[in-house]
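[agent] plan:
  1. take the single chain provided in the ticket
  2. run structure prediction with default settings
  3. attach C-alpha cells to the ticket
  4. add a short note for the reviewer (M.T.)
[agent] executing step 1
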Amino acid sequence: MTSLLYLACLVGSLAVMGWWDRQDGLFFWAAPRRAALVMALGVAFFLAWDVGGIGLGIFYRGDSELMTGVLLAPELPLEELFFLTFLCWLTMNLYVYLTRRLEARVKVAQ
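[agent] step 2 finished; step 3 output follows
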C-alpha cells in the first residue's frame, strides 16, 4: 500500500490544481484547447529533458518504498509523468493568477 503513497499524493495535488483552475477560471477553464497544447508541450519538453539527463547519467531513479516501481523507460518512473504534469499545471495556474492580479493593480493605480 505504501508503494502507492507518492502517486496518490501527486494525483491529489493534480485534483487541487483542477479545483483551483475551475474555481478561478485560470488555465484549462479559460481556454481548454490552448491549455491542452501548452500542457502537452511542457510535459513533453520536461520528459525529453529527463530522458537526456538519464542518457547522460545525470538523473537516476532512487529506490523508495513510496513509489510503485513502474517504469516508463529505464530510470524513468511512472510518478515522474504525474509530477511533470503537476509542475506544468501549477506553473500555468500561478502565471495566469499572478498576471490577473498584476493587471488589476495596474488598473486601480491608473
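[agent] step 4 note for reviewer: The chain has three helices and two strands.
[agent] ticket updated
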